[in-house]
Structures are given as C-alpha cells and as structure tokens.
C-alpha cells in the first residue's frame, strides 16, 4: 500500500516538473524572439537614422553653399 502511494506521488511530481519545464521554455522563447527583432531592428533604425542624418547635413550644406 505504502509503495503504491509513493509511486503515485513520484509520477505526479514528474508530471508537474515537466509542465513547469514546458512553461519555462515558453517563457524563454518569447524574449529570444523579441531579441531577434531587436537584432534586426537596431541596425535598420541606425542605418535609417544615419541616412537621414547625412541627408539632412548634406541638404543644409548644399543650401549654405
């Protein structure tokens, strides 16, 4: 009787651990996706900013003569 009870406790603990692990993996995937967007987004934003910056300064320089 006690052995059977012990086994059911162990299996319940294992399934809880698996569920916790899966939910943790889900939480880990979301920030990695976000950092992926940042890795793509930061260079794009920087490039656009530099282009606008250079265009703006080139524009003012040509106007000033």
Q: What is this structure's SSE topology?
A:
Elements (H helix, E strand, L loop, with lengths): L1 H63 L1
Task: Compose a concise summary of this entry.
The chain is mainly α. The protein is built from one helix and no strands.
Strand content: under 5%
Largest sheet properties: none
Oligomer: single chain
**Helix-residue proportion:** over 70%
Could you please describe the fold and organization of this structure?
- The chain has one domain (about 1-65).
- It is rod-shaped and about 90 Å long.
- It is built from one helix and no strands.
- It is mostly helical.
What labels describe this entry?
about 60 residues, mainly alpha, about 95% helix
């Amino acid at each position: 009787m006690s052995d059977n009870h012990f086994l059911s406790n162990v299996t319940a603990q294992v399934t809880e651990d698996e569920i916790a692990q899966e939910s943790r993996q889900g939480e880990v995937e979301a920030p990695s996706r976000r950092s992926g967007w940042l890795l793509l987004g930061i260079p794009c934003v920087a490039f656009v900013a530099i282009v606008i910056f250079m265009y703006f300064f080139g524009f003012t320089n040509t106007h000033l003569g």
